[in-house]
Amino acid sequence: MTISPLFSKTRSTFRRLVLGSFLSVAVLAGSGAALAASGAPDKAGKSEQRHDKDARRKHGPKDPARLIQRADKNGDGELAVSELPERAQKRLGKADTNKDGFLSVEELKAHAEQHKKERAARQKERFAKRDTNGDGFLTKDEVGEKRWARVKAADQNHDGKVSADELRAARGARKHKAAR
Prior knowledge:
- By secondary structure, the protein is mainly alpha-helical.
- It is 63% helix and 6% strand.
- It has 8 helices and 4 strands, in the order αααβαβαβααβα.
- The chain has helices at 3-37, 46-57, 64-71, 86-92, 105-130, 140-143, 145-151, 164-178; strands at 79-80, 102-103, 137-139, 161-163.
- The strands form 2 sheets. A two-stranded antiparallel sheet has the order 1-2. Strands 3-4 form a two-stranded antiparallel ribbon.
- It starts with a helix and ends with a helix.
């Protein structure tokens, strides 16, 4: 008779342990499902970054008027450099050519055009640096095995060499494909 109270106490403890474990697993599973449904990034955070990057590409060329409208925090119709996030202040603050502290559509367009020209010049310089024999083409020998694996996709005529025009066309096709 002294044995039965011992078993009932053990059984009760066992039931609490099993029930507690079950509830813990249910809570963890529920929080994991909620996290996945919220679109939280994976461990590396790359899935969310890719999604954001693709979403930005879908909008096509940046519209300065739209930027001004979105970033105008006080709603006065003008975009003060100070209304921009810190990183954007550093990047777009250079566009304020008349130094009045505000960014106009014209200033933003001129800044974007200048940035585009500088980028094209850097690309041309990088191409010339890689084109060691100066023939206007990049080959596997000039860029190396690893880089050639990426560059050869631009070789439209499959002649084993890539011109600057082929690279530009491939880059444009990649942008167009991402915008879909």
